[in-house]
Design brief:
Oligomer: heterodimer
Order of helices and strands of chain B: EHEE
Number of helices of chain B: 1
Low-confidence stretches of chain A: 86-106
Largest sheet of chain B: 2 strands, antiparallel
Largest sheet of chain A: 6 strands, mixed, barrel
Shape of chain A: globular
Strand order of the largest sheet of chain A: 3-4-11-5-10-9
Mean pLDDT of chain B: 94
Radius of gyration of chain A: 22 Å
Helix content of chain B: 10-25%
Radius of gyration of chain B: 10 Å
Helix content of chain A: 10-25%
Number of helices of chain A: 7
Shape of chain B: flat
Strand content of chain A: 25-35%
Distance between the termini of chain A: 44 Å
Low-confidence stretches of chain B: none
Strand content of chain B: 35-45%
Number of strands of chain B: 3
Largest interface: A-B, 73 and 27 residues
Number of strands of chain A: 27
Chain lengths: 417, 28
C-alpha cells in the first residue's frame, strides 16, 4: 500500500525484541576535540554486557510504576517543592495484561567502565537526570546491597583509591547530597532517587577508566554501602547531570562539558556515549535548541518544547501549555506532556489510528492508548513530531511513538505550571 | 512541565554542550 503523507508503515516484527545482538559496535561520530566513546546498550537483552544480560528484566508494570514515581519527583523538583514533599508519592497501581510479546527491556541504558587500579569493570546506568555517580563497594552484602552480577568493587584492593575526607572542598561539593562526616572523618553521602530507590556510603576518589585511551584520575564517586530499589542488572550509576559532582562536571576541563549519546532502539542493537567533541556550532545533521536551566533543579538539562504535530498536522495547543519547559532525561522512560498537550496528542493519534481499525488493547499503567497488533504483518502509524524553540524538530519513528503497543506518552503535572 | 523520555530519544544522537541541545536522527 502507498503510505499517505504524514503516516509511516513498519513491519509488526519491528516491535518484537531481537534475541541476538545484531549490531556491530557503533561507529560513533569522530569529531575534533577530545572524545571518549563508550559502547552503550540496553540494561537487559542480548547486547547488554554478558555478565548482566541473563538477569530477568523487571516487569513492565514495575518499570512503569518506577517511571511514574521518577517523573513525579522531577516535576516536583522543578516546581521547587521542598525535600519532604519530593518523596512519598504513591504511584497508581498498574494492572498489565500478561499476554505481551512486545519489547519489554527496562528501557534503561548502560555503559561499562573500569574503576580502580587494577581496574574492575562495572556496568553503570547512564543518567542525565542525576549528578553523583556510585558503585556498590565491598564489604557489602544483602540485604544492605543488592545482588549484582559483576564483581563488587573493593576499595581495599585498589592502589589508587582514597576516601574523601570530611571538611574538604570535595565533601563540601556534595551540597544537596546530604553529605556528612561519618566514622574516621570520612565524607558520607546519601542519594534518594525519585522512584524511591537510594544509595548511601562513603564519598571516594579513584581512577575511572572509560576507554583504553581515556581515564579520569581522582574521579569522585559514591562507594555505596547500602542501596535499595530497582537496580537489577547494574552495578551502579554514571551521573551525567549539570552539577559539579557529575562525570560531565568533573571532566569539564578535559571534554569541555560537551557530550552526546545515542540510545539504541532495540535491546539487540547498540548505541554510544561520547564525551567531548567540539563545543560551539553543532556538526551537520543536528537540529539544535537552546539549553535552559531551572533555578530550583539545577541538575536538569531543560529545553523549550513549543509544539507537537500528528500526521503532519500541528496540534492546536497554546504555547503557554509548554511554558514550564521540558527536562531531557535518559532515566525517564515515557515522555510526559502537560495535560492539555497530552489530551490533544491522544485525541489526534486515536482519530488517525481509527481509520486502520486496529483492535484496542487495555490501558497499561500510565499508558492509556493501546492496540493489539497481533496478526498484523505491517502497522501504519501517523508520524509524531516534537518541535522545540529555534525550530529544532524531532520527527519520531515508530519506535519513538509506540512502546508496549501503546502511545508512549503520558500526561504530567499542570499546564505551564 | 514536560519530560522528554528515553523512548522518544531512541536512535537520535542527543548532543549537549553548555549552550544547546541538538538532535540528529537515525544515529544508532
Amino acid at each position: 500500500a502507498v503510505e499517505a503523507p504524514g503516516y509511516v508503515t513498519v513491519s509488526a516484527a519491528s516491535f518484537k525484541p531481537g534475541s541476538t545482538c545484531s549490531a556491530p559496535d557503533p561507529v560513533a561520530p569522530q569529531r575534533n576535540g577530545t572524545s571518549a566513546v563508550l559502547r552503550l546498550t540496553h540494561r537487559h537483552g542480548p547486547c547488554a554486557p554478558s555478565r548482566t544480560s541473563s538477569l530477568a528484566a523487571p516487569s513492565v508494570a514495575d518499570t512503569l510504576r518506577a517511571d511514574q514515581r521518577r517523573a513525579e519527583y522531577i516535576l516536583r523538583r522543578v516546581s521547587g517543592a521542598g525535600a519532604q514533599q519530593l518523596l512519598g508519592s504513591k504511584a497508581a497501581a498498574a494492572t498489565v495484561p500478561a499476554n505481551w510479546g512486545y519489547d519489554i527491556g527496562t528501557l534503561n541504558y548502560v555503559v561499562t567502565a573500569s574503576l580502580g587500579t587494577p581496574g574492575v569493570a562495572q556496568t553503570l546506568e547512564v543518567d542525565t537526570g542525576s549528578d553523583l555517580s556510585w558503585v556498590q563497594c565491598k564489604p557489602c552484602s544483602a540485604p544492605a546491597c543488592y545482588n549484582q552480577k559483576d564483581p563488587l568493587f573493593d576499595p581495599a584492593q585498589s592502589s589508587s583509591y582514597a576516601a574523601v575526607p570530611c571538611g574538604g572542598s570535595a565533601c563540601a561539593g556534595l551540597g544537596m547530597y546530604e553529605s556528612s562526616c561519618v566514622s574516621s572523618a570520612q565524607c558520607g553521602y546519601v542519594v534518594r532517587y525519585g522512584d524511591g530507590s537510594s544509595t548511601t556510603g562513603v564519598y571516594s576518589s579513584d581512577t575511572l577508566t572509560l576507554t583504553s585511551t581515556d581515564a579520569v584520575q581522582g574521579f569522585l564517586f559514591g562507594c555505596g554501602r547500602a542501596q535499595s530499589g530497582l537496580f537489577t542488572g547494574i552495578d551502579g550509576l554514571l551521573g551525567l547531570g549539570r552539577l559539579q559532582p557529575s562525570l560531565v562536571g568533573q571532566t569539564a576541563g578535559t571534554y569541555g562539558g560537551a557530550f552526546s549519546y545515542c540510545l539504541p532502539t532495540k535491546p539487540s542493537t547498540t548505541g554510544y556515549l561520547a564525551l567531548g567533541g567540539a563545543s560551539g556550532a553543532a556538526p551537520a545533521g543536528f537540529s539544535t535548541t537552546q539549553l535552559l536551566s531551572s533555578p530550583s533543579a539545577p541538575t536538569y538539562y531543560i529545553v523549550m518544547l513549543t509544539g507537537i504535530s500528528v500526521g503532519g498536522q500541528p496540534l492546536s495547543v497554546p504555547a503557554s501549555a509548554f511554558a514550564g519547559g521540558t527536562v531531557v532525561d535518559t532515566g525517564t522512560v515515557v515522555t510526559r506532556l502537560p495535560p492539555a498537550a497530552y489530551a490533544a496528542l491522544r485525541s489526534a493519534f486515536r482519530s488517525s489510528m481509527a481509520s486502520y481499525s486496529y483492535p484496542a488493547a487495555p490501558p497499561t499503567g500510565i499508558l492509556d492508548t493501546c492496540y493489539n497488533f497481533a496478526g498484523y504483518g505491517a502497522v501504519t502509524l501517523p508520524t509524531v513530531a516534537l518541535t522545540f524553540s529555534s525550530g529544532a524538530t524531532l520527527t519520531l519513528g515508530a519506535d519513538g511513538i509506540l512502546s508496549f503497543g501503546c502511545l508512549a506518552f503520558a500526561a504530567s503535572g499542570s499546564d505551564g505550571g | 512541565m514536560a519530560i522528554l523520555g528515553n523512548v522518544q530519544q531512541r536512535s537520535f544522537e542527543v548532543r549537549i554542550d553548555g549552550a544547546s541541545v541538538g538532535f540528529k536522527p537515525n544515529s544508532c
